[in-house]
Amino acid sequence: MKQLTLILLLAVLLSACSVAIARPETLVPTDPPFHTPTLPPTNTPRPTATVVTPSITPTVNPVEGTVLTQINVRVAPDKNSISQGLIKAGEKVMITGQNAAGDWWQIQYPAASGLGWVSAAYIETKSKPEVPVVSETASPAQGTPAASPTPLAGISAKTLEKVNVRSGPGTGFNSLGTIDPGSSLTLTGKNETGTWLQIFKTGGPGDRGWVSAAYVKVEGDTTLLPVFNELGTPVVETGTPQPNQPTPTMVIAPAADDGDSVQEPAVSIQFSPEGARQFTYSSDVSTPQGDSTDWVQFTPYSPQPGQTAPISLNLTCDGNGTLNVELWQAGAPLTGWGTLVCGGKSGALVLSGDSTYLLILSVAEGAGDLQSVLYTLTVKLSQ
Questions:
Q1: What is the DSSP string of 188-253?
Q2: Around Cβ 107, how many Cβ atoms within 10 Å?
Q3: How many CB atoms lie within 10 A of CB 247?
Q4: Calpha distance 113→95 (Å, rounded)
């Protein structure tokens, strides 16, 4: 009993001395205890200026080319555009540009606007020119492109046999092709001697070509045709001096070497009743300086082998010398044919229709001073 009382007393004592420890109550704030910080303003970067280096057009290194045939220099890469002039076969040109198609070259052309266009087909280069594509438009100063040349009406002809059409009046010019016998031609001009006829031909330089008069039957008067030199430039034929115009005076100077010889005469014409019936040739000779001798060759015509043909010669001269004229046949001087002097005619010479004859014109030597003669020779088939 005593033990039970002690246990109860101890329990009461322990109960009176205990400390209650309360856990703090979790508070849920009605307002957030934190604030969204205000950040410093962000600077929007300004666009960075891009420094553009001015584009410098590279200097074009011109490429040299050689002209294969006489060609027109045009204001635009089009055969119907205005021609600024002509360039002779064999001359050099400097190529500075090309059209988009690459079939025309732009070249330096100081003789006109400074630049011009030529067909690439007629220019030879060592390699394909590395030149830029340039504008194809003609400037207003260069004019409006002209229409294609119109053939001269009223002078027609037919070929007597197959004939070469050349880019200029001579066998040294490029062939543009051939024309069959009996073909119709439209004549647009002639050279200064009348030995070559200019025809209308599409695709030729300036839509023109040249054929030898010896192989053409003309159906009209060739005296009405305009005269062109080998560059295609019109030549004003000399005639009776007009009032108030002085008569031209010949300048005594050494004659330029024209490159002819016995083997390569300056002119070689074969006559025929339906083709060439006459020709005129002008040149000059001088001594002791300059070209002293010219050779002119012709073959008369006769209907039948072994027959003769009447030929007449006419010679006019200017200068301070004396012109000697020899007539050769078969490589030797012909005797008994007569003489031909300046201002005179030979009369009718009866020559063989089967032979080729050579006229040799030379200036006689003087007393040490320069002797020079400008002459015009006309050879005509009289029948």
A1: EEE-TTSSEEEEE-TTSGGGEEEEEGGGEEEES-GGGSPEE-TTS-EE----SPPTT-PPP-----
A2: 23
A3: 7
A4: 15
Work out the end-to-end distance of the chain between its first and last CA atoms, rounded to an integer number of angstroms.
Answer: 190
User: Taking 50 as the threshold, does the pLDDT of residue 235 lie above it?
Assistant: yes
Q: Are the beta carbons of 331 and 282 closer than 8 angstroms?
A: no
What is the DSSP secondary-structure string of 347-380? EEEEEETT--EEEEEEEPP-SSS-EEEEEEEEEE
Mean pLDDT, all residues of the chain:
74
pLDDT in tens, 325-355: 999 998 999 988 888 999 998 878 889 888 9
Residue pair 279/325 in contact (Cβ under 8 Å)? The answer is no
Residue 158 has pLDDT above 90, yes or no: no
* CA–CA distance, 209 with 166 (Å, rounded to integer): 6
- Chain position carrying tokens 């438009």: 137
* DSSP string computed for 146-176: PPPPPPPTT-EEEESS-EEEESSSSTTSPEE
Task: Give this prediction's pTM.
Answer: 0.43
With a cut of 50, say whether residue 29 has pLDDT above it: no
Domains and CATH numbers, the chain: 63-137 (2.30.30.40), 156-235 (2.30.30.40), 267-381 (2.60.120.380)
121 contact partners, CB below 8 Å, separation of at least 6: 103
Specify the pLDDT at position 196: 84
Q: Is the pLDDT of residue 153 over 50?
A: no
